[in-house]
Amino acid sequence: MATPAVPQGQTQNPPTIKTEVSLVNLFATVRDKNKRVVTDLKQENFKISEDGHEEKIAFFSREMMLPITLGLLLDTSGSEQNMLGAIQGAGSRFLRRVLRKGDEAMVISFDTDVDLLSDFTDDRSILDRAISKARINTPGGGYIAGNPGPVPSGNMTGTALYDAIYLACGEKLNGEAGRKAIVIVTDAQDEGSKVKLEEAIESAQRTDTVIHVLLVADPRYGGNGGVARRLADDTGGRVIYVNSEKKLEEAFDQISEELRSQYTLGYYPTNNSRDGKFRKIKLDVDNHDLKVLARKGYYAPKG
User: Fold this and answer.
1) pLDDT tens, position by position, for the chain (303 residues)?
2) Which three-class secondary structure state does DSSP give residue 154?
């Protein structure tokens, strides 16, 4: 949600009560049948509906340089042991490629703990050092900014994927404006999180954060494609399956291109009730051979 716009009421005595309507922003990527990014569409090519009701597009832009606030989340559980070195190298190159002037990124690792390796910064050397600090199953790291949120630091086992997403969105990205995205390198296996998958997804939806998943799975442990798809589909992101170092580099390149090739659309919802409920959004284009990636909904303001 963006800054509320307040329609002007007519001057009279007593004064009219003004109705607050908030602009809903969507960031969309469009690809063709060959998965190439499409960047030449116009406003009239798009159609937005909320809970089945068509909405009028109030804002449209193909601005490719809109600032990004990005979280890179690295799975450092034992199942990623064989790929960690490649993940670190590719992750550093990804951030160097994708970040532009005005962008910021943070780095988080998660296994039995959720560790903030670098807070938001635009300093590439700080981010590189943070990525290089990621270690497989390093115990006792401590939680984001020393604030555990809903997750106690003791008696945890396994991989705290959902907790990492919940904390990244609720504790860190919640206070950020504009485009927000999380890129998670993981096998999407969660064992031991205190929050549920649905709560992790809701934390992303409430903060307008898109989740992209690079699914890196050791054949001995397997990967949870269903969880990865839920995280991405419900927030407007992508899942890319990775089974080699080359594929990892290609996946980071695809996400980089996607983050830099988005349309921005906005509308004032017809339903202006401040009921706090989830509203479903459907964004379509008039060419059915094209696929649109955008978030599937938002939570209305409350009160």
Assistant:
1) 444 443 444 444 444 333 455 899 999 999 999 989 999 999 999 999 999 999 999 999 987 778 899 999 999 988 888 889 999 999 999 999 999 999 999 999 999 989 999 999 999 999 999 999 999 874 444 444 443 333 333 444 568 999 999 999 999 999 898 899 999 999 999 998 999 999 999 999 999 999 999 999 877 777 899 999 999 999 999 999 998 889 999 999 999 988 888 999 999 999 989 999 999 999 999 999 999 999 999 999 887
2) coil
**pTM of the full structure:** 0.85
Ordered structural domains, the chain, with CATH:
4-9+20-63+271-299 (no CATH), 68-259 (3.40.50.410)
By the 8 A CB rule, do 248 and 269 touch? no
For 265-289, the DSSP string reads: EEE--S----B--EEEEEEEES-TT
Strand order across the beta sheet in which 114-121 lies? 114-121, 104-110, 68-75, 179-186, 209-216, 239-242
CA–CA distance, 18 with 152 (Å, rounded to integer): 44
